[in-house]
Amino acid sequence: MISSTKHKILTALQSKDDRSKNILVNVLMSFGVKGGSILVGLILVPLLIDYVSPAEYGIWLTISSFVSWMSFFDIGMGNGLRNKLTAAIANDQVQEARTYISTTYAVLAIISAVLLLIFLVANRYINWNQVLNIPVDIKDDFRHIFFIVFASFSVQFVLQIIVTILTAIHKSALAGLVSFLGQLGVLFAIMMVKRWVPGDLTIMVLMLTIIPLFVFAFASVVLFSGKLRHLSPAIRLVKFQYARQILNIGTSFLVIQIGAVVLFQTDNIIISRIIGPEAVTGFNIAYRLFSVVMMAFTILMTPYWSAFAEAFTRNDFDWMKRSIRKVRKIWFVIAFIIIPALALCAGLIYRLWIGDHVEIDMALTISVALYAIAYTGMALNSYFLNGLGKVEIQKYLYIIACTVNVPLSIYLTHRIGVHGAVLANVAVLTAMMCILWIQSNRLLSGNATGLWNR
Question: What is the C-alpha separation between 163 and 94, in angstroms, rounded?
Fold first, then answer.
C-alpha cells in the first residue's frame, strides 16, 4: 500500500499539469507544517489550563473571540488582494502586483491605527468583568489584558498580509510555516515561564500575542529582501485608487468575513455569558479535537483557491471539474468515515489528552462532530467559489445566517446547554452547504445565470 501511494505521488509530480503538481507539492508540505501546528496546539491546551485554570483559560478564549471581530475591519482587502494578486501574476503584471501589495499595506495600516485609537478611548469606560461574566474570585485587570490583546492584534492585522501574499502566489506551505513558527515560539515560551513564574493570566496573554508578531515581522523582512524581492512593497507604489479595484471583489468578501466572524466567533461569548467561562473551555477542547480534521481539510483546499482563480482566468474548466470531483470524494470519506470514527474514540482521547481537568459529555462531542461535517462541506464549495470570485450568494447567505444563528444559539444554549450553540451552527452551515453545492454544480456545467453566476 505504501509503495502504491508513493508511486501515485511520484507519478503526479511528474505530470505535465504544473497547476496540479504545484497544488500537490503545497498540500504535501502543508501537511508536514500543519501537522506540527496541530501537535503544538494540542500540547498547548493542557499546558495552558494547568498554568492558569479552566475558568481563566476560558476567559482567554472569550477575549480572543471578541478581539477577532477586528478582522472584518480589513474591509475585504485581504481576500480581494489574494484574487487580484493571483490574476496579476498569472498575466505577468509584476509591477501591478507590487502596487496592489503596497496599497493593501498602506490601507490596513491606517485602519489599524484608527481602530487602536478608538479602542484606547473606549477601553477606559468598559467593565469587562461584567461583559464577560467573570467570576468574582478572579481579580485580574482585564482593561490591561484587553489592551495587550488588542494592540498586538492591531499590529498583526498588518503584518499577516505576508501570509495572504504567499498563499496567492501558490506558496501556502510557506505561509503555514510562518504561522507554525509563531506557535512553536509560544510553546517554548510557555514551557519556560511555567517553570519560573506562578500561574498568571497576563503573562500567558503576553506570550500568546507578542511572540507571533516577532515571527511575522521577521518573516516579512527576510522574504521581501530575498525570495519575494520582486513583490516587495514601497511607499512610492501606494495608489489609493487601486484600493477600489481590490474592493470591487473585496466588498463582498467583507460581508462574508463579517458573517464568518459572527457565525464562528460568537459561540464563546454566548456560552460565557449564559453558562460561564469554564464552559467555554469544555466546548473548545471538543472543538480543538475535531479541528484537527477541519484543519487537514483546509490544508487540502487552501492551494485550490488561488489555483481555481488562475484556472478561471485561463478558462480551464476541464481542470476545475476534475479537481472538484477529486476533492468531493475526499470529503465524503472525511464526513462519513473519519469524523464518526473520531467521535467514537473521543472519550478515550480526552482522558489521555486533558486528564480529569475538564469533563466533556457525549452530546457535546456529537454536536461538534456534526459541525465539522457541515463546515468542511461548506468550505469545499466556498473555496471554489471564492477563487472564481462568484461570492454574491455567499454574501446573502452569511447575512441570513448571522440573523438566524445568534438568536437561535442563545435560545438553544438556554434550553439544552453548551451543545445548543453548536447545533445552531450545524443547522445554518448545513443549509449554506447545500445551496453553495448547487451553485458550484451550475457554474461547472455552464448553466449558472443571474445570481447563480455572480
Answer: 18
